[in-house]
């Protein structure tokens, strides 16, 4: 019998000072049995970092949502889709291969990857030259220690605040706060 995903609910209050975006999001995350709390929380942070595109790109008329993630490799970890069904933003977390990223760039206006694992530098050195031609792609590095700290905030029902200022995000709940500053690789 296959293991089922675990459902997490998150009420996320975003204060993105950099982009003037302030909103509350009621989110449902399905955590695949092989997904860690760390990866799930990096997905949540990635969504918060890019939520301003809902207003900036879609003028409020779009859907910001989590994809099937590990359950379906052809589905983004998170995405922004406008009212016509067009993928405006495709977000991936981890260390994806070059072919799925190339495919994602053909399906979406922009693709953003957030690498967070301690082996991310090795992954990046091995794949960097294969990704240089992908103009729609951005690659960001989440510091390993901060990603591990995010896992401490994971609960089945979460009340989270995300404050984004000067390119850094602080994710907070009653369990504490985790500041992280993504580093842009591409």
Structural class by SSE content: alpha/beta
Distance between the termini: 41 Å
Q: Give the C-alpha Rg.
A: 15 Å
Total of helices: 5
How many strands in all? 11
Helix content class: 25-40%
Largest sheet: 6 strands, mixed
Task: Write down the overall mean pLDDT.
Answer: 93
What global shape is seen? globular
Order of helices and strands: EEHHEEEHEHEHEEEE
What percent of residues are in strands?
Answer: 35-45%
Report the uncertain regions: none
The strand line-up of the biggest sheet is: 3-4-5-6-7-11
Describe this structure in words.
This protein is an alpha/beta fold and 186 residues long. It contains five helices and eleven strands. The strands form two sheets. A six-stranded mixed sheet has the order 3-4-5-6-7-11. A five-stranded mixed sheet has the order 2-1-8-9-10, with helices on one face. Helix 1 packs across helix 5. The longest helix has 14 residues, at 37-50. The mean pLDDT is 93.
Task: Describe this structure in a few short sentences.
The chain is α/β, with parallel strands linked by helices. Helix content is 25%, strand content 38%.
List the SSEs and their pairings:
Blueprint: E1 6-16, E2 21-31, H1 37-50, H2 53-56, E3 62-66, E4 78-82, E5 87-93, H3 98-107, E6 111-115, H4 120-131, E7 137-141, H5 144-150, E8 157-165, E9 168-173, E10 176-180, E11 183-184
Parallel strand pairs: 1-8, 5-6, 6-7
Antiparallel strand pairs: 1-2, 3-4, 4-5, 7-11, 8-9, 9-10
Helix pairs in contact: 1-5
């Amino acid at each position: 019998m296959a293991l089922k995903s675990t459902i997490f609910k998150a009420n996320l209050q975003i204060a993105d000072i950099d982009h003037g975006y302030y909103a509350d999001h009621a989110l449902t995350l399905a955590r695949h049995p092989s997904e860690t709390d760390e990866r799930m929380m990096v997905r949540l942070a990635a969504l918060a970092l890019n939520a301003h595109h809902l207003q900036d790109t879609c003028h409020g008329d779009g859907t910001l949502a989590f994809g099937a993630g590990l359950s379906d490799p052809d589905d983004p970890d998170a995405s922004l889709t406008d009212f016509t069904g067009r993928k405006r933003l495709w977000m991936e977390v981890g260390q994806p291969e070059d072919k799925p990223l190339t495919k994602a760039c053909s399906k979406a206006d922009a693709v953003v990857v957030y690498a967070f694992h301690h082996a991310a530098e090795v992954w990046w050195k091995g794949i960097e030259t294969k990704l240089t031609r992908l103009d729609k792609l951005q690659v960001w590095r989440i510091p390993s220690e901060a990603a591990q700290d995010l896992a401490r905030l994971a609960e089945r029902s979460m009340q989270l605040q995300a404050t984004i200022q000067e390119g850094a995000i602080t994710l907070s709940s009653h369990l504490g706060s985790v500041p992280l500053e993504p580093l842009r690789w591409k």
